[in-house]
Design goal:
alpha+beta; Jelly Rolls; four-stranded antiparallel sheet; 2 domains
């Protein structure tokens, strides 16, 4: 029975590494601490009070963070557009994480022919097309046509370089814009969000590459600048 408690504690810790949702992670951590306390209390000789005490502290900290999470989630209320954006482009994020992204974003509208980004100039925002189409060109040559769900300016954000191409709307377009400075600050405060956003940008870049060239091989993920 004692060995079962010990194995259970380590198995729960290992399982916590596989979950993405922070609430599940903290719940598994509490369960692992309870199993560790059981093992330490019934250990041969005498209870291991040091182990029991520290696991009690871990349980208390995780319970506090769970309470904070529940309070945050109760305050989440997305508009219909934000719900659609979450379901179509940001489903990898926990609702609380997506709420943090939305708070620093601005919804914008642009008429047909509007220039969103110019080649060689530093773009101040990372954008995502919510509806509409845009043209991407360089030196007068069309490189791509982007549509709903595509990011704009993500390469310059990742590499910290000026825009490589000019982006112009082909029709009335609604898009979401994140100021680069605010987005970098957010990712620095929440490294787990940087990992998820990295996956989103990688998938977006791979999809664009596949549409342009028909390439279906492996695509090397970029590293976010944090």
């Amino acid at each position: 029975m004692l060995d079962i408690a010990g194995h259970l504690a380590f198995a729960l810790i290992a399982l916590s590494f596989l979950v993405r949702d922070i609430l599940w992670l903290r719940s598994l951590s509490i369960a692992a601490s309870v199993a560790s306390i059981s093992y330490a209390y019934f250990a041969p000789g005498q209870p291991l009070w040091l182990v029991i005490g520290w696991n009690g502290v871990f349980i208390g900290l995780n319970l506090l963070q769970i309470a904070i999470l529940f309070r945050e989630r109760r305050g989440i209320a997305f508009t219909d557009e934000e719900k659609e954006l979450y379901q179509t482009s940001f489903s990898r994020f926990a609702p609380v994480e997506f709420m943090r992204l939305v708070r620093i974003a601005t919804w914008k509208n642009a008429g047909s022919g509007a220039v969103l980004m110019r080649a060689g100039e530093e773009a101040s925002e990372v954008m995502l097309i919510f509806s509409g189409r845009v043209n991407v060109e360089k030196n007068g040559r069309k490189l791509a046509e982007l549509r709903s769900g595509d990011f704009v300016g993500e390469i310059g954000f990742v590499k910290r370089t000026p825009a490589a191409a000019t982006v112009t709307t082909l029709e009335p377009t609604r898009y979401v814009a994140w100021p680069k400075g605010a987005l970098r600050s957010l990712l620095e405060r929440h490294p787990s969000m940087a990992v998820v956003l990295n996956a989103e940008l990688t998938e977006d870049m791979a999809d664009k590459l596949a549409r342009r060239t028909g390439f279906t091989g492996a695509f090397r993920p970029p590293t976010l600048p944090i």
